[in-house]
Amino acid sequence: MEEEARKLLEEGIRKKLVSPGNGQLSTFPNGTKVVFHYRTSLCDGTVLDDSRTMGGSSKPMELILGKKFKLAVWERVVITMKQGEIAEFTCETKHTSLYPLVSQSLRNISAGKDPLEGQRHCCGIAQIHSHHSLGHKDLDNLQASPQPLLFTIELLEVLPPGSFQLDVWAMSDEEKLDLVPQIHEEGNLLFKQGQIQEATDKYYNGIACLKNLQMKEHPGDEAWVKLDHMITPLLLNYCQCKLLQGQYYEVIEHCSSLVFKYEDNVKAFYKRAKAHAAVWNETEARADFTKVLDLDPSLGPSVAKELRAMEERIRSKEKEEKGRYKGLFNYNGPPATATTVSPV
């Protein structure tokens, strides 16, 4: 134990045992899955992140050792711990410079967003030296002024290779590509069964998986375009789910991004038209439905049905508003009488 502490200290990591763990120290071969809670603090005690409170879910961190996690120091310190152990690790700046990017991804995940949202197409070091905001003031400050950090870690579980199913993020690029069609089919099945939220989650996972791969390619290159063509049907299915869930503005946003790239994508125009109609954007809805007919005249009956439904909703709304304001400016009623209030 003392020898390990000395090695850590030589590497710029100071370990302080808070609570001992159980049993023997694992050998931690590559492929081992470690599950742990963490709290990240500045050396003045300011807490940046805490897995027990992040996103209100108290979800622990999971790492597969040997997968080249962006924050390598976490892999380095957990292999010095026993299951159940709690320890504090004060790490020099050379180990923490990429923490702002890691934290941004973890915060995105806890908020149900794409973990890569807001990150530029470049390596981690290049992002650190850019002036691109990470969307969090504390992380921007840390990115501008890298400094030592204190990680308090509780090692919950150590799972040897082969004893668990790999999460998507831990898979190789080839494994991810092989998995996406399966995710797509599972989403379609859930949708047919009426399990809309579950289908939404499947489509989202497939999109996130492909976007993760796409971030490694240069926009416009053949590999990037191929991945984008795989993302498009998943995104359209995701939008269909969001239509049923009433998330119309999100549908408009996603479909707008699709028609910007693919001007002949009739499904994107059709779904955006329906979303516009649902939020009373009559002019935009009619323009999109017209575009749908230009691209695919066979959809005439479906478009006519949607237009009739929109017009009926508009008439009902106008009738409701007329009834609501009827009499509001009726000047035939008795005149108002002034009331005199005696001073107290």
Could you explain the architecture of this structure?
This protein folds into two domains: 2-120 and 134-159, Chitinase A, domain 3 (Roll); 168-322, Tetratricopeptide repeat domain (Serine Threonine Protein Phosphatase 5, Tetratricopeptide repeat, Alpha Horseshoe). Strands 1, 2, 3, 4, 5 and 6 form a six-stranded antiparallel sheet that branches. The longest helix is centred in the C-terminal third of the chain and has 26 residues, at 300-325. By secondary structure, it is an alpha+beta fold. The relative contact order is 0.08. The protein is built from 13 helices and six strands. Residues 120-130 and 338-344 have low confidence and may be disordered.
The CATH class of the largest domain, by name, is Mainly Alpha
Helix content: 40-55%
Span from first to last CA? 83 Å
Give a short account of the largest sheet.
6 strands, antiparallel
Question: Roughly what is the average pLDDT, rounded to an integer?
Answer: 88
The SSE order reads HEEEEHEHHHHEHHHHHHH
* Low-confidence blocks of residues: 120-130, 338-344
Structural class of the helices, strands and pairings?
alpha+beta
The CATH architecture name of the largest domain reads Alpha Horseshoe
Beta-strand percentage range? 5-15%
Number of strands: 6
What's the alpha carbon Rg, rounded to whole Å? Answer: 28 Å
Count of discrete structural domains: 2
CATH superfamily of the largest domain: Tetratricopeptide repeat domain
CATH topology of the largest domain: Serine Threonine Protein Phosphatase 5, Tetratricopeptide repeat
Gross morphology is elongated
Number of helices: 13
Protein name: peptidylprolyl isomerase
GO molecular function: peptidyl-prolyl cis-trans isomerase activity
EC number: 5.2.1.8
Domain PPIase FKBP-type: 31-85
